[in-house]
Structure formats: structure tokens, C-alpha cells
Design goal:
Layout lengths: L3 E8 L3 E3 L15 H12 L3 E5 H10 L6 H8 L1 E5 L11 E4 L3 H10 L5 E4 L2 H9 L5 E7 L7 E2 L10 E8 L5 E7 L4
Parallel strand pairs: 1-6, 1-7, 3-4, 3-6, 4-5
Antiparallel strand pairs: 2-8, 7-10, 9-10
């Protein structure tokens, strides 16, 4: 069974993105060459990306016109966007799913292939948590405090115990925390 891995950058005070519009919501990311190499390694080890609508729209507006290995991988990998309001998914290799989120993700997990990556998507991540569909959390804590923004697990109201799988410290002072869910509720 394939794993669903949530990969997200977060501020020290728990925000997935900051206030503002467009790229200014994430202008606090401490991404550098080391982070880019990590991203290439991570994307090369996956074959499906899952998005909620907002994160999908941001990625789809930016990455198709970019160059480099990260852009190539993001553009070529299979993508699924979950949205009840999006009219179409135009980014290459993307399909739109409007309903039955838990069932579709559970089915994807049973298919042969590499791990499935969820990038950001605070509302979508909360939905996946609610249905016990995240197998690994990779939370990259950036050394910044915003004071406001969108909380990482926006909308999640449950209690979830996690166990630490490992950590990684980047030269940019990002600390990646890797967790797996403890017992399924």
C-alpha cells in the first residue's frame, strides 16, 4: 500500500501561509539550494501529488512557466486536485475530483506505485487527518514568526497523537520534523 505523505512548510507559530495575496502569503519560506535538492529528491520518490483548490491554484499559476528540475518534476508528475468549486484543472497531468475525497484517496493508496505527496493545502490536510489518511507528516518549520495567517491544520478539531520518525536541520535554519500517526482513532 502506498503512503500518503504531507509535506508542508510552517512558521514557528504554526501558520501554513501568511496574510496577503498570491506569493506574498509564502514569501517567508527559507528555500535555498539545499532545499531545492531536497525537493528534487522528494519529488523523484513520488508519483502522485494531491492538492486542495487554493494550493493547486497557486502551484498551477506558477510552476508551468518555470525552468529547472523541480519545475520539470512538478509539471510531469500525476496530480489530483480536490475541489467542489473549481470548474476545471488545466495544469498538465492533473485530474479534478469534486466529491468522495476519503474514498478517492483511500483507493489511490491501494494502487501500485510510489508514495503520494500532499503539498500544503491546510483545509485538505485537515480532511485527510479526519479520515486517518496521512501516513507521514513532514513539517518543515521555518525560523519565522508571522503572528497571523492560516493555521496548518485549519478546520481539524480532533486529537491526534504522533510519534517522531526523525528530524533534519537545513543550513537555512529550517528544521524538518517527520512524524507518523500513532494508533488510529
Amino acid at each position: 500500500m502506498r503512503k500518503v505523505i504531507l509535506l508542508v512548510m510552517m512558521t514557528l507559530d504554526g501558520y501554513f501561509d501568511g496574510p496577503g495575496e498570491g506569493l506574498e502569503k509564502i514569501d517567508w519560506h527559507h528555500a535555498d539550494e539545499e532545499w531545492e535538492n531536497y525537493s528534487i529528491e522528494t519529488l523523484s520518490g513520488a508519483d502522485t501529488l494531491l492538492f486542495g483548490r487554493k494550493t493547486y491554484e497557486g502551484f498551477a499559476a506558477f510552476w508551468p512557466t518555470q525552468e529547472g528540475e523541480v519545475a520539470r518534476l512538478l509539471n510531469e508528475i500525476e496530480k489530483v486536485v480536490f475541489s467542489t468549486t473549481l470548474s476545471e484543472a488545466t495544469w498538465q497531468h492533473t485530474r479534478l475530483v469534486r466529491e468522495q475525497v476519503a474514498e478517492v484517496v483511500a483507493e489511490l493508496k491501494t494502487q501500485p506505485g510510489k508514495p503520494i505527496i500532499v503539498f500544503g493545502s491546510a483545509d485538505f490536510a485537515a480532511t485527510l487527518m479526519q479520515h486517518n489518511l496521512i501516513d507521514e507528516y513532514r513539517i518543515a518549520v521555518n525560523p519565522v514568526v508571522l503572528g497571523e495567517g492560516t493555521p496548518l491544520f485549519k478546520g481539524y478539531t480532533g486529537h491526534r497523537e504522533l510519534r517522531l520518525l526523525g528530524t533534519r536541520v537545513f543550513r537555512s535554519d529550517i528544521v524538518e520534523l517527520r512524524y507518523a500517526p500513532d494508533q488510529v482513532e
